[in-house]
Design brief:
Elements: E1 6-8, H1 13-23, E2 29-32, E3 38-42, H2 44-52, E4 72-73, H3 79-87, E5 92-96, E6 102-107, E7 118-123, E8 143-144, E9 147-148, H4 149-159, E10 164-169, H5 173-180, E11 189-194, E12 215-220, E13 223-225, H6 229-239, E14 243-253, E15 258-261, E16 267-271, E17 275-288, H7 303-312, E18 317-321, E19 326-328, H8 332-341
Parallel strand pairs: 1-2, 4-5, 7-10, 7-12, 10-11, 14-18
Antiparallel strand pairs: 2-3, 5-6, 8-9, 12-17, 13-19, 14-17, 15-16
Length: 347
Amino acid sequence: MLDKHIIQSNKTVRDALIKLDKLASNAILFLVDINNSLIGSLTDGDLRRGFIKGLDFDSNLLEFIQPNPKYLFENEYDQDKLASLKKNKFKIIPILNRDYQIIDILNFDYKSTIIPADAVIMAGGKGTRLRPLTNETPKPLLKVGDKPIIEYNIDRLARVGIKNIHISINYLGEQLEDYFGNGSHKKLNISYLREDKPLGTIGSIHLANEFTHDDILVMNSDLLTNIDFADFYNSFINSGADMAVAATSYNVDVPYAVLETDVNQKVKSLKEKPRYTYYSNAGIYLMKKELLNMIPKDEFHDITDLMENVLAMDKKLITYPINGYWLDIGKPEDFKKAQEDIKHIKL
């Protein structure tokens, strides 16, 4: 995608028209110098306006361009700015390094936003409750509809601009490595955290060589969900929290009238067949990278242990309610339900 939208400043007007024609509805080019540094943008409209002013096919492309195009700097993805660009109908944005060289292109047709976070997907479990399906296939690779469970999550992470994905593997992990490789076919950077022994639901995170960003998204691999990752991330950032846990609602309907009393058994109120709503851990988390210091290395450690430590250290832990679809595929009946649900939900 990058090369399709870039044209060197020494190219001709005819060269530009040929490239724009191939791009169709995505018809915008970014003019660069010999160092691949951004000079300006060029559209069919810019060429048309140039011709009206008297320019022709022998004119230099520099005479046609818009000299101040919108752009983003690498790893500096302000969510408000991204939302503003979308709202104002900017569709294709170049991403630059600090030398103003174009290193990537953001196309809002393929990515809804860019979340500046790394992701860790926990995929090391044995899936014993789903045997015999998991006797020879790791649970994350069991197909729901036309692709594996874990692939839905990876593709959704890619659509919000998360490129660095670490997959924690153990049981039959080599199958996951063979299936996804290094992620280049999805334009992702996929690496593997290989457990030599069970390390719990967060302990393997120290097996990662490095994290590029200050925030880390951690999730279970066996979830089918359309959680709004962008809204989840924005809520996390805007709250100033150290950690956020996505939660799914669980309703309890009491079939009788409930009497609420004080300590002396005096009735204070009566509720007829009330419904109580509780929130359960949905297996998706956001955390500041600095929390890694609270996770012991090479030891079994669950993410609930980390959450308890966060609370004990008086750090800020928030919940984020999932308002959309969520299913934890743990049992045969969950797997069967997923096969039906995937026909009707959009992931």
